[in-house]
Amino acid sequence: MKPLTLALLAATPVMAAEQAQVQLLERQVSVEVAPQRTQSQFDETPIWKILEKEGWQAAQQAAANNKTSEKLNTEISYQEALNQLTQAVKTHQNEQARQLLAAHPDWASCQRIQWAWLDLQQEVATGYGPKAKQKFTQILTACPDHGLSTTQKLLGWTRNTNGSDILARYRQSAGYQPEAYNKLAYQLHLTQLGQARLSTADADAAGKQITQLRDAKGAEMLGWQYYRQKQYSQALMWFDQSIQWTRSGSAGTGQPNKKQIEGKILTLQQLGRSEDASRLQQQWASRYPALKKLNAGEGSPQLTKVCKSEPQACLELLYQQPSMTASQYALAGWQWYKLDRPLTAKRAFEQALEAMPGSDKQFQDTQYGYTLALNKAGFEQHAEFLANKLADPQRKMLYAKQRESKAILNAYEQQNYQFVIEHSEAFEDSFGKEVGLTEIKGWAYYNQKQNTKAVETFRKLVEAYPYDERFQDALKTAECAQKKSYKLCY
């Protein structure tokens, strides 16, 4: 018998590059296949080898016009469907994925574990709900040899908040491995350190565990946790501890990484120890050139990182500066816009444009932001005038999209439901579907007593997001109105 090695699915990273990652410790997955001869004594061995080395398409061509066995035909069909399902799940083609899975329910087995994994991945695409938990538990129960790999993959496919439940189910399974579990649990803890704002008690507990393990990476991440909470003395202590453990060889390199040095420099700056920060920069600038321009202001990696996902924290860092540059005012404008403060965003963009030459590479992007803020703040005519002057066709299209969505929202607030229905359909034709506007269109149908269309609209949302209670309640309300029997529904 010859093993046919199947390519394993790659799990999505759990966190940003600088954070600790869940390590995949998968074992090789092999399927034992036995080349067989048919009654006509046709030798299939070369085709099995082609399937193994070149894939299902080459094997399918080689098998054409030959009387091959059912086992070979089934394996080729499986490989073809597996490829289609992989692409469907990867590109979020949910309907195609559901059809493929429904056509071959018997393939979700331990022998074809990749199919079972894709089935689980497709299920968690809409949330880690009851069905996903059931499928995960079924794999753990029926396929204990694949329990660890499945757990690792599921941690990569879901939010970190689901990690505790996933690990608890793995711990209760027959394939539970204590050492691997402890490693995954600790890595999950590090993920929370890197992304969540921990309470004092949780931070203290993390510190004890990190100290016990003398984990340099964990100490670094705890340093960043305290830095984000503006507890700079604690942050400095943990950055120093991280560097010390790295140098003592616990991290295996003996040399601190850039993020450790960066954290210490930024913390020293926040503590007012600018001379110490400057000396540390000079000491490490030759090894990490990016540290030369490191400060809490413009160009700071820390500022760039914070401004990607934390607008309020970004603004706090920006307005700590004695003075702001044009690009910093533009950055502030975008953060205020994210916080739904269009008037404040408008003023920030105006300050940026006053100080920014038209030749600046950020000028067009800043003017685009200013146009969006104007429109959202109610200055439609001025916004329309500036939008017509935008040089980038893509930005013009995005502005038109925002303008139309705002008009639909305003019409809904004014109870002009027919306008909402007509313009929502035109919006979808021009820009594609938006979840929020689709929900509003459903309620517009409901308020116009077009209950059948309301049910159809809300049902599509429930199918796409089966664990969103808001859409489930909306569908139930529309169905009750359609039946004209609220007493039976509530």
TrEMBL record:
Entries under Gene3D superfamilies matching the protein: Tetratricopeptide repeat domain (1.25.40.10)
Highest taxon of the lineage: Bacteria
Presence of keyword Signal: yes
Record InterPro entries: TPR-like_helical_dom_sf, TPR_rpt
Signal peptide as annotated in the record: 1-16
Annotated keywords: Signal
The UniProt record lists the keyword Signal: yes
Cross-referenced Pfam families: TPR_6 (PF13174)
Protein name: Tetratricopeptide repeat protein
Organism ancestry: Bacteria, Pseudomonadati, Pseudomonadota, Gammaproteobacteria, Vibrionales
